[in-house]
Amino acid sequence: MEYSPPPLFKQGPSALARLVFFVVLALVLLISDARFKTLEIVRGVLGAGLYPLQRAALVPRDIFMGAADLAVTSATLRNENAKLRAKDLQLSQQANTAASLNAENAHLRALLQLSQRLTTQSLPAEIQYDTRDPFTQKVVIGRGAQQGIQNGSPVVDEDGVIGQVTRVFPLQAEVTLLTDKDQAVPVEILRTGLRSVIYGTPKGDTLDLRFVPISADVQSGDELVTSGLDGVYPPGLPVAKVVRVDKQADTAFAHVVSLPVAAVRGARQVLVLHVQNDAPPRPADAPDAATVAKEAKAKKGAKAADGKGAAEKSATKPGDRSAADKATAEKPAAKATEKAPAKAAADKKSEKPAADRKAEKPAAAKSAKPQAEPGAQP
């Protein structure tokens, strides 16, 4: 009779061998699925088979959520309805007030013959992609020169200012965002009317309100809107909100940090505004006092030089007249000498040396001088 151990005590492969086998099998399956996608079909079949089980497991949660929704009482609904009615009444009152103020404003402008505010035209556009330069805050929109986009036009969304068009192509345009370090927007504080200029920062997350005196009334939470003084941005567009004001004694200006109101990086659809500025051109700048003084000194120097030249001309006139008289006196003597026979002149020239000829010239001039005196002017 053959002896065999009971089934409970039968031994198969060792535990270490099993562990190594399954670890190697798992690694092979992972590598093959990651490299060659061999288990996609198996995964799809298992997912389709397990979907009914997943829905069945989620049934208790759906029942609980439905019961919680049905547990809303009629009192809560009445309270919400009352709040909505009160808000509707408040908004209707504000709308009526705005309509009356608009009519009054139009009447006052007509009475004072003031021009209306700038007319603004808008063109919708969609942001396509960001620029490749990581150090600038710029995006590209799908509108260009053929659609009427102009360089320098402001870009806004439903919340406020996004940026400004800085480069225009035929079918696209480049927009510099509000948070770019080279972008500047003239703004004013809505509460006090203080005007300043807001700039982007190198990090691109906050805005810096510069040139604010340390004694200015600026508080955290103040709203900043466009002032409209530059003729590019229409007045009253929301730009940012003040979050921190740092006033230091060693500086003349306060450090005001603000955050943009609009989602500058999260916007997808924007509006490109085309502002028509009907303001008259800026008059020519008046010359400085130093320039005026230099021009006056130059004119005085020119006049003095002209007077000096006239005096010199008047001083040289008598000398010129005496020289002319001498020339007219010498002409008759020269004619008289020319009338003498050529032979005599040749004999005289041959007999007399050059020194005698030089002596004859002053004698002739002296003999001719008395003849010119009666005609000379005193």
UniProtKB/TrEMBL annotation:
<keyword id="KW-0812">Transmembrane</keyword>
<dbReference type="GO" id="GO:0005886">
    <property type="term" value="C:plasma membrane"/>
</dbReference>
<feature type="domain" description="Rod shape-determining protein MreC beta-barrel core">
    <location>
        <begin position="130"/>
        <end position="273"/>
    </location>
</feature>
<feature type="region of interest" description="Disordered">
    <location>
        <begin position="278"/>
        <end position="378"/>
    </location>
</feature>
<feature type="compositionally biased region" description="Basic and acidic residues">
    <location>
        <begin position="294"/>
        <end position="363"/>
    </location>
</feature>
<dbReference type="GO" id="GO:0008360">
    <property type="term" value="P:regulation of cell shape"/>
</dbReference>
<dbReference type="InterPro" id="IPR055342">
    <property type="entry name" value="MreC_beta-barrel_core"/>
</dbReference>
<keyword id="KW-0472">Membrane</keyword>
<dbReference type="InterPro" id="IPR007221">
    <property type="entry name" value="MreC"/>
</dbReference>
<dbReference type="InterPro" id="IPR042177">
    <property type="entry name" value="Cell/Rod_1"/>
</dbReference>
<keyword id="KW-0133">Cell shape</keyword>
<dbReference type="InterPro" id="IPR042175">
    <property type="entry name" value="Cell/Rod_MreC_2"/>
</dbReference>
<dbReference type="Pfam" id="PF04085">
    <property type="entry name" value="MreC"/>
</dbReference>
<feature type="transmembrane region" description="Helical">
    <location>
        <begin position="15"/>
        <end position="34"/>
    </location>
</feature>
<keyword id="KW-1133">Transmembrane helix</keyword>
<feature type="compositionally biased region" description="Low complexity">
    <location>
        <begin position="364"/>
        <end position="378"/>
    </location>
</feature>
<comment type="similarity">
    <text>Belongs to the MreC family.</text>
</comment>
<protein>
    <recommendedName>
        <fullName>Cell shape-determining protein MreC</fullName>
    </recommendedName>
</protein>
